Amino acid sequence: MERTQVEVRPTRAGDEDGVRKFLLGLSLHTQSHRFFAGVTKPSASMMRALLARDERRDALVAVVDDRVIGHAMAFRDGIDVEIAVVVTDEWQGVGVGSQLVRTLLRRVTGAEWVAMDVMGDNRKVLAMVRRAWPDATMTVESGSVQVRAELTFAEQGSVASPLTV
């Protein structure tokens, strides 16, 4: 297998078309795991939210050969940061999602807790959460799992290395 460099970087002007194509290329199963519904046509407001970066929000993409293969976003509210991540079907299971999460959390300053909502049947992400945060609190509510975990100093503030798969 040829080794491929995956670039994880902040979203920037000009990413809208690439992110839209990425979303539409996700299987219904993967769309549902991320958005809790299918995404047949991403709205302008959805695209703005996925690309937004400011003092409280951050967004990253994972890119291979100018093709978006993953997306992660964070919203910070005081000492809490809520995150969401999705990786295209053919790139799942090789570390892209974990790299997006690590990079995103390293960019967050001032947060002490991370939270995320995960579909109850999303075993891959729940397993990743258990590995990353073994002491995380997981509460089941209406078919989803609300995850809350304490961030460690090591998860914040350092520069992420590129991913090669």
UniProtKB/TrEMBL annotation:
Q: What's the protein here called?
A: N-acetyltransferase domain-containing protein
A Pfam family found in this protein is Acetyltransf_1
Q: Which GO terms describe its molecular function?
A: acyltransferase activity, transferring groups other than amino-acyl groups
- N-acetyltransferase domain location, by residue? 6-154
Record-linked CDD domains: NAT_SF
Extract the signal peptide range: none
Q: InterPro entries, from UniProt?
A: Acyl_CoA_acyltransferase, GNAT_dom
